[in-house]
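In the design runs reported in the main text, the only information available to the sequence generator was the tokenized backbone. The following block is the verbatim input for one such run; it is reproduced so that readers can re-run the procedure and compare outputs position by position.
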């Protein structure tokens, strides 16, 4: 496959960023601590003794969810990428470019849900823009920037990773793929596995967030770096973290927790769950002394997790162990979710 050929849908692949985007980042500023790079969900700059982390994402509203539920998801998409910095969540800047057909009642329902989540997590809205425009369509109805602020000692990132650190993974693969597909294509899930299966899979929807995972993880000093396994799932997330940090990984696939609804969804609809979009799955690099303690604390909060591997020297590469066999870990490049959603839509 031509490495320069862009995927039809989903994120632009790393080769294009390396050639076109990353060499052209405007003016150099020595206060930029973490700039754009593969495998890091946020940027950080220094203001005096304070670290400020930011992340920008589309504001993603799917009317089929219902506007309150859709707004919950949109808020968490935006803040998950900055929560993995380890800094406390603080501010939201938001631009709403709404479709003309969106009614006042729908806007109010959406915004009430945003307000409730912001209040829950101690986030203040500091600026924004709100309008309805011709040409604006669901689900991308604008964009938002999440901001977290804290001390340098609280900042997590690839610079803190050490050889011998352990890999902790929460919730398992395909959390988002399962949650979204089961809500968007309810009838297809009922046809494939029955009403009980559809309800179980739809229960994954409110697991599509790492905000609570990160709130627990940041209480452990041994948590070095964190990443939300979004596009291309766990395999993509692990590959991106290792690339960003310049280290190798040895992963035990059987140690990774897999939620039964996600496993069955992948089997019924024919995709590899470890390559599928999984907002809500936290991948954390943790000092050996804190890894099991973190898993225990997550479990006490009802969040499944496990120690699933370790950091190794870069020259040992990225490998996955399964049943005694060792295989190289490659980046999936294309997430199967988009093609599955398109296929189910046509059906």
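Verbatim output:
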């Amino acid at each position: 496959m031509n490495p320069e050929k862009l995927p039809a849908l989903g994120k632009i692949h790393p080769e294009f960023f390396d050639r076109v985007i990353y060499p052209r980042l405007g003016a150099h500023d020595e206060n930029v601590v973490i700039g754009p790079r593969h495998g890091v969900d946020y940027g950080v700059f220094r203001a005096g003794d304070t670290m400020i982390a930011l992340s920008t994402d589309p504001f993603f509203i799917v009317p089929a969810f219902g506007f309150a539920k859709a707004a919950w998801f949109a808020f968490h998409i935006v803040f998950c990428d900055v929560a993995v910095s380890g800094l406390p969540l603080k501010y939201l800047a938001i631009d709403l470019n709404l479709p003309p057909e969106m009614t006042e009642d729908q806007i109010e329902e959406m915004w009430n849900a945003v307000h409730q989540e912001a209040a829950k997590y101690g986030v203040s809205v500091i600026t924004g823009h709100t309008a309805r425009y011709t040409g604006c369509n669901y689900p991308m109805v604008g964009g938002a920037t999440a901001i977290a602020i804290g001390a340098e000692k609280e900042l997590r990132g690839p610079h803190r990773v050490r050889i011998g650190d352990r890999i902790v993974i929460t919730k398992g693969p395909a959390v988002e793929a399962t949650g979204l597909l089961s809500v968007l294509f309810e009838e297809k899930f009922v046809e494939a596995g029955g009403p009980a299966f559809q309800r179980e899979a739809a229960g994954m929807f409110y697991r599509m967030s790492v905000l609570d995972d990160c709130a627990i993880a940041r209480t452990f000093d041994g948590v070095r770096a964190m990443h939300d396994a979004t596009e291309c799932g766990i395999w993509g997330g692990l590959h991106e973290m290792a690339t960003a940090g310049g280290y190798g990984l040895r992963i035990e696939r059987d140690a990774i927790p897999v939620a039964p609804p996600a496993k069955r969804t992948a089997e019924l609809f024919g995709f590899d769950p470890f390559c599928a979009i999984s907002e809500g799955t936290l991948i954390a690099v943790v000092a050996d002394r804190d890894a099991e303690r973190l898993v225990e604390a997550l479990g006490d909060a009802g969040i499944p997790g496990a120690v699933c591997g370790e950091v190794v020297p870069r020259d040992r590469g990225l490998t996955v162990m399964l049943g005694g066999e060792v295989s190289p870990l490659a980046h999936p490049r294309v997430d199967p979710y988009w093609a599955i959603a398109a296929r189910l839509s046509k059906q």
